[in-house]
Amino acid sequence: MVQIIDDKEIEAFFKTLKTRNSVSDGKYLSIVKDIINDVIINKDKALEVYTKKFDDKNFSIQNVEILKDDQEKAFFSLEKEMQEILIKAKDRIYDYHMHQKRNTFTYKGEFGEILGQKITPIENVGVYVPGGKAAYPSSVLMNIVPAMVAGVKNIVMCTPRQGGQVNPLVLACAYLCNVNHVYAIGGAQAIAAMAYGTESIKKVDKIVGPGNIFVALAKKEVYGSVGIDSIAGPSEILIVCDKSCNPKFVASDMLAQAEHDELASAIVICDDLKTAKEIQKWVETFYEESNRKDILTKSLQNYSKIIVVSSISEAIKLANIIAPEHLELAIDNAFNYLDDIQNAGAIFLGHYTPEAFGDYMAGPNHVLPTVQTARFFSPLGVDDFIKKSSIISFDEQSAKMLADDVMKFAKQEGLMMHALSAKLRGV
Fold first, then answer.
1. Which of 24, 47, 119, 184 counts the highest number of beta carbons within 10 A?
2. 332-359 pLDDT, tens per residue?
3. What is the dihedral sign for C-alpha 217, 141, 136, 259?
4. CA pair distance 260, 287, nearest whole angstrom
5. Which one is catalytic: 326, 328, 355, 366?
6. What's the pLDDT tens digit per position in 172-219?
7. What are phi and psi of 66, to 5 degrees?
8. Identified catalytic residue from 221, 325, 328, 355
9. Are the C-beta atoms of residues 302 and 265 closer than 8 Å to each other?
10. 417: part of which helix (H) or strand (E)?
């Protein structure tokens, strides 16, 4: 089911992991470009054609928007317990992201000039919520709540109908977040509509949210016309553990990640062979309880391994090379190793902190960098929904103090009008 390997086989496995980034696969690109161009030219008419073809044969552009009343009905149709869980999740996510909020600042420089930074929310944000193989109401909360905290004025959401309807939990979360507009469209056509606008859907300034290969490629294509968050790849987890771990916990966490899709990766790095074998045994046991065996079989065989190493230090070194989306430290004194972690989207510390907590209720964002992009990307957060403008103000006296240096610097670059501009302030 899932193999145990040692350090001799690691290099070959790492090469396999690198093939998971299917977004670079160009065979769908021409299709996506055609859809985007069609939406740019034909707008609502194109949206209707593609939505009927891919998602809902009974779709009409007149019913593209899901009204507030329908969102409210979806929320109150849920069991009271589920309503309370969604509210609790939203509140915890909101509280966490409030700690990320930035403020405008100014200060006086050495010559009395005023310098600083102005924080301004992005005005219009589009959120894409998938609705294909599965619906993810948690993605609604994770993508929209930080935008709310940032102060975005207009938030629109696009999500496809499946079987003639949008998932009620997705609509319930949109209601909780008071989304300005919800549109029942999906795929590359939804990304194009938000990026360029149609008669029914106004252009936004930035698009966030995960999706399939068509959505990912569409986001790449429209980048520049609008901002995007990132290009999400297949999900992944790396669990560093020692003999203090509970093998049942580790096995369940492996399977929780591997059940996402066929390209998902679940890796364990352990410094004890006996513990590794126990984990392997529990993976096989829990696998039999799964309702997604087809997916698990492929992800466990192709992109998941239990790696046995000589020490936790070696495990941490490998973790930094892999740069996982999710990193669990299922070891004693996990906080002692926190400073050693250089590359990870989210770090889960200790035996009672499963990645599943982060997906739903912990509070930090579950939209994380994948396929080694944790080397240079961060989780989605409030900063993704703001703009920063520099503040610069010199008076006559402070300008004279800097003008001569600026003039000489500009002359070195051969920009004589820059030099003149500075010189005139220094007279």
1. 47
2. 999 999 999 999 999 999 999 999 999 9
3. positive
4. 14
5. 326
6. 999 999 999 999 999 999 999 999 999 999 999 999 999 888 999 999
7. -95, 115
8. 325
9. no
10. helix 416-426
As a whole number of angstroms, the distance between CA 93 and CA 141 comes to 8
Give the C-alpha separation, 140 to 170, whole Å: 7
350 CB burial (10 A radius; 0-12, 13-18, 19+): middle
Report pLDDT for 24. 55
Q: Residue 392 is inside which H or E element, if any?
A: strand 386-393
Q: Which residues pair with 391 in a beta bridge?
A: 116
Q: What pLDDT does 25 receive?
A: 59
At 66 the pLDDT is: 96
Give me Rg for the CA atoms of the chain.
Answer: 25
Q: What rounded mean pLDDT belongs to the chain?
A: 94
* Region class of 347: left (phi > 0), else alpha (psi between -120 and 50), else beta: beta
Please name the residues in contact with 193: beta carbons below 8 A apart, sequence gap of 6 or more: 39, 43, 47, 158, 183, 185, 200, 201
Provide the token pair at 424: 């005139």
- 326 flagged as catalytic: yes
DSSP per residue, 178-201: T-SEEE---HHHHHHHHHH--SSS
Q: What is the mean pLDDT of residues 120-145?
A: 91
Question: pLDDT of 31-80, one tens digit each?
Answer: 999 999 999 999 999 999 999 999 888 889 999 999 999 999 999 999 99
Task: Name the nearest CA neighbour of 349 among 330, 367, 322, 369.
Answer: 330
3-state secondary structure of 82: helix
